[in-house]
Design brief:
Strand order of the largest sheet: 3-4-2-5-6-1-7
Radius of gyration: 14 Å
CATH superfamily: DNA polymerase III subunit chi
Largest sheet: 7 strands, parallel
Number of helices: 3
Low-confidence stretches: none
CATH topology: Rossmann fold
Strand content: 15-25%
Helix content: 25-40%
Distance between the termini: 30 Å
CATH class: Alpha Beta
Number of strands: 7
CATH architecture: 3-Layer(aba) Sandwich
Number of domains: 1
Amino acid sequence: MAEVSFYILPSESAQERYEFACKLIEKAYRSACFCYVLADNAEQCQKMDDLLWTFRAGSFVPHQTYTGELPGFEKVILIGSLNPHENWRKTVINLSSHCPEEFGKIDRILEILDNSEASKAAGRDRYRQYQQSGIHITTHKIGH
């Protein structure tokens, strides 16, 4: 069964939310965890794609946008708005406004919320969905 961790940031900045996601992605990659980044749309995918190249000098995180076609090799971070392929269901970083479909098949889901009302409201809805499914949830307040 999945395990869900919510990370609640002190600021209302979407940019800081994306940068925090990059740090989690880099940490996962350095631990040989090739995660899937779930986004709402192509624009959000592009934002994360661009940011992963530039968020920290000297950082290299191999990644690509997932449009339904598998990459040539599996040791890469995928970013997409589609359901994660089964090979990338170990860890999903959810930046979308909804729960991943079939979230019970995912080992670990990381939810990142900024402190804006819209982000918190959507996060509460997802929290309830996970909780009603009996999934273990942890919450981390960052920088509070």
